[in-house]
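Internal tracking record. Fields below are filled automatically when a chain is submitted to the structure queue. Please do not edit lines marked as system-generated. If the sequence contains nonstandard residues, flag them in the REMARKS field before resubmitting.
Queue: standard
Priority: normal
Entity type: single polypeptide chain
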Amino acid sequence: MAATKKTGMQTITFQNPPFFRGNAAVAGPKEGQGPLGRTFDVVLPDTLNGEETWEKAERKMLENACELAITKAGLTVEEIDFMMAGDLLNQLISANFTARDLGIPFIGLYGACSTMFEGIALASMLVEGGFADYVLAAASSHYDTAERQYRYPTEMGVQRPLTSQWTVTGAGAAVIGCEGKGPAITHVTIGKVIDLGIKDPSDMGSAMAPAAADTVIQHFKDTGRSPSDYDLIITGDLAAVGRALTEQLVKQAGYDISKNYTDCGILIYDPVQDTHAGGSGCGCSAVVLNGYLMGEIRTGKYRRVLGVGTGALLSPISSFQGESIPGIGHAVVIESTASLRK
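SYSTEM-GENERATED OUTPUT FOLLOWS
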């Protein structure tokens, strides 16, 4: 049986596009002080979020985002068929414990910082394939939990190099449904794991850029589209270093994305906040997408967006053993309902 919904090598084209039914973004205090602070549903007063530990704070933040997205979708928890979520912590403890508390049939995801887009891609396939009416996709990260696991506890005061990124404290959630006012998900391009040998865990932008570029290039090849077909092309958390490399790599393949390309990790912080290269983490694209970007699409500023969730697939053990850092990028095309009617 032919895969009738597959276009080219890696892209899925939805014949009956699923819709965003509800979105929510919960952000930390530093993120709330940035340029996009007004676009988040909730800004935490502090990084502990009323809890005893940062890990419990992240879990509470993710649960809040999920419940809020469901409420904004006009649904109840019982009406959600499946939940797809992930985070950066060992054994996905933020997502697993949130799923436990919500009681929704759960599929845990680990795509590192690409998890939000990975979840939307898979949720869209379930909905458009007729396997579910409503699927919740979510992701979270927390600066202090990530620093403790991947690098050094913040109490040590280790100096960060200029290529390093600031893990976003934030959680985002989206309810994908078979009906709604939109925006819609029309295409998904599943990325390959790409590794060009970058080993510095403080330079994840360079490690992820080749995978982001590969997915963008393949999307154009599969669909026959060009950069000008999109009002905006946005990657998840490459920040300043990775963004520049991605633009260069895509241009070498014959596509100039310089006029309409940016990155969530650049948008979320102001340079005066001193995050060095910019933002990162699962929460980076999760809050920018479910807060800022959804608002801009719904108000008509953007009619068609190519979003690419990016992830660095490393662990503390692999880094300590001298392994390089593989990267991944998953692309989702988001279109306003007005664009679909054209």
